[in-house]
């Protein structure tokens, strides 16, 4: 029976690695709508603070440059076969992630959080119940083993993305920008002379989430593989499968592609916003299970029309 089913799988092409996985309104449910942008330009901005752990101005600038290179890598793919572009706005003082319906202060923000909420917020603070500690106290409110978190807000009916913010966990990871060598031991990266958690590696992955890609847990060669061990820089280069996503979900000269019809122009008077926060873990093979559990717990969805978090 096993042999038979394997042969059927081979015949159906089911053992081929998945080139990419699109994010869905209901994460993992392939009958629910995909998340995608319909604007021609995604404007994004760096927080003016940069990495609070970085003292040297030159290093701060090198970090901003690494973030820009990550967007440029995707931009090159969109230029070859896609229909949108990225545009960087000026540095902003805003430290809040999320989206307000009809708000005038929304932006796609990239920021570092350098303090853990558990360490700076009293356990009695109402923000724990409201799930607003990160914004209220400018702290990392997620799992300590998570490198970065992309929070995407979208229309629950159409899957159209309104906003996506990327938070980098500088409270738990040393972000570096040099090309080589890997830090040995990994924790020695504080001076940025070796690769600890490569910023461009991390950002290239997170921007994949920002444009509507989910993790590809089966393919370590994908930029959307959910983990990145210390010293890794390979995700700076976007794999063919993720390139295929750009060409197919955002075809050049055409509208961005949904997965379920009807989608665009869906009827109804109320807009229901959905939010997804996807965390991306580090750690070596020995931490495989805890890392995956951490990721699963972080992939939640909330229905809170108009609320900001
Ligand atoms: Zn991820």
From TrEMBL:
<dbReference type="InterPro" id="IPR001818">
    <property type="entry name" value="Pept_M10_metallopeptidase"/>
</dbReference>
<dbReference type="Pfam" id="PF00413">
    <property type="entry name" value="Peptidase_M10"/>
</dbReference>
<keyword id="KW-0479">Metal-binding</keyword>
<protein>
    <submittedName>
        <fullName>Matrixin family metalloprotease</fullName>
    </submittedName>
</protein>
<keyword id="KW-0645">Protease</keyword>
<keyword id="KW-0862">Zinc</keyword>
<dbReference type="InterPro" id="IPR024079">
    <property type="entry name" value="MetalloPept_cat_dom_sf"/>
</dbReference>
<feature type="domain" description="Peptidase M10 metallopeptidase">
    <location>
        <begin position="135"/>
        <end position="240"/>
    </location>
</feature>
<dbReference type="GO" id="GO:0008237">
    <property type="term" value="F:metallopeptidase activity"/>
</dbReference>
<keyword id="KW-0378">Hydrolase</keyword>
<keyword id="KW-0482">Metalloprotease</keyword>
